[in-house]
Write a structure and sequence with these properties.
By secondary structure, the protein is mainly alpha-helical. It has a domain at 21-73 and 108-164: Up-down Bundle (Hypothetical Protein Ta1238, Chain: A), CATH 1.20.1200.10. It is 64% helix and 4% strand. Helix 1 packs antiparallel against helix 2, helix 3 packs parallel to helix 5 and helix 4 packs antiparallel against helix 5 (142-164). The longest helix is centred in the last third of the chain and has 24 residues, at 112-135. The chain starts with 11 loop residues before the first strand and ends with a helix.
Length: 168
């Protein structure tokens, strides 16, 4: 089977749930931006030296595959659940306990991994905006919105952990 199918040559794509939609639709823009997040996370994982950070990034990437599946499906059961939100919140809380308190603005970029995580953070914020825009016209599970909001915070915390060079 070829990597190209020619089924999208006329500007349409198939959703996971089978419907055909315009490639320029807000739905495709939403899950496409989450796909960009995954690429940013892949780069961050390649640059990060802290193995704990790398392992957490992989979990985010796996979660994003489920996010994209949810956004690319119409009237299907959600892959993203409240447990994903809880895991992110718990992980953020644990990192906040480990890291020194913040008393000034943090400028990322002391390490390649930290810089890449900061790029991932801002890309997650853009994905969240695209999903919220799509939610004005289409159904988006609340947990999808919450996970995206928490992911940007988690990327920030992972950047801090990578740049402090602490291994926990």
């Amino acid at each position: 089977m070829s990597v190209y199918t020619k089924t999208g040559d006329q500007g349409k794509t198939s959703l996971l749930s089978g419907q055909r939609v315009d490639k320029s639709s807000l739905r495709v823009e939403a899950y496409g931006t989450v796909d960009e997040v995954n690429s940013a996370l892949a780069m961050a994982r390649a640059f990060c030296e802290n193995e704990d950070v790398r392992e957490k990034i992989i979990k985010l990437q796996q979660m994003n595959m489920m996010l994209m599946a949810d956004l690319a499906s119409v009237d299907a059961a959600s892959y993203i659940t409240a447990e994903h939100v809880s895991w992110l919140e718990s992980s953020i809380d644990k990192l906040e306990e480990q890291l020194p308190p913040i008393n000034k603005f943090i400028v990322a970029g002391d390490t390649k991994g930290g810089a890449a995580l900061d790029m991932a953070r801002t890309t997650v914020r853009r994905a969240e905006r695209r999903v919220l825009e799509f939610a004005k016209i289409g159904k988006v599970d609340e947990n999808v919105r919450l996970v995206l909001n928490r992911q940007s915070d988690f990327c920030f915390m992972l950047m801090r952990l990578e740049e402090t060079n602490k291994i926990h």
